[in-house]
């Protein structure tokens, strides 16, 4: 298809920089491109039930609500003795362990108790083991603590953390390891989450090597190893990764036949002699939403709607540039907001930090610059060319540098990188 001069998503006219040769479509502003990627996803994918073991990385499709009070009974916070009333106390019973259900405690008596054990009915406090002294001859327990044993001391009362029916986490929260533990403590065996968007990765380029050092004019494929775990961290399910030759036919068939919710390609987004992605999209009847973004590195990235699958599921394609750092720029610009919205994840709020040194910018475009963060400050890293990954490997964030750059001491938005 031939792209029109207005955006099919919102009807707004594009601005003039970085138009692809032979195409009337101009580069999108970086923020606008991310907004289009987010909105073109439509509604999140359907909700599905998952066991706790299978829910990791999904987004909650409904709020997580407490199924019981937590703790569900008064609990000893320390090892020691459960005591009833003021001391000294006559010792009674063999002790209470976690997992047991104790009988009542009479006034003036005490019973040994372990941390996490239910407090017996009638107990008023727990006396820590280091604060108690036992007279074995009289079978009495004396208080040696600095102050009086007030009611409730070292008892975790029922419902201290939450009450049954209380909302714990909102819908859209990502199920992390911490959330799994919280859900299990609250009594859940299964969670209702959004289905992960499926992704098929097509790595394009005859020049790529899968093994060994670069040689014979060819380079190692860095994106094949880099992208699948990154995509998984964004909530996607990578259902396939394929090498595709620089040939229109195989690329067209791979795009046409893909069952994935999102097809991601690397390379072939510009207008070089073997860049066949635009021709492929025209031949399969795709609808271009973003064709080049005013960002460096990575401006020749694209986003398209593909024809739906036979069962009516919508499909999208994100075209990433072939240079590694440029591809990462495309990933965080277009793929990340698309995949997170499809998966039902809440949008993270912007993170703004202070530039510890000047952050160089492009004269006209947004620049995504690898940076190292320390406290509330960011420092730029070297080796930030579009074909380089050395700076990215050292970075824990990408600074979103506006045209013209950022002076030292000014604030700048940062995109946190996985694994930080």
TrEMBL record:
Keyword Transferase: yes
Domain of life: Bacteria
Region of interest called Disordered, as start-end residue ranges on this chain: 1-35
Keyword set includes Transferase: yes
Name used for this protein in its record: Molybdopterin molybdenumtransferase
Chain's role: Catalyzes the insertion of molybdate into adenylated molybdopterin with the concomitant release of AMP.
Pathway the protein takes part in: Cofactor biosynthesis; molybdopterin biosynthesis
Location of the MoaB/Mog domain: 200-341
Cofactor(s) essential for the protein: Mg(2+)
Enzyme class per UniProt: transferase
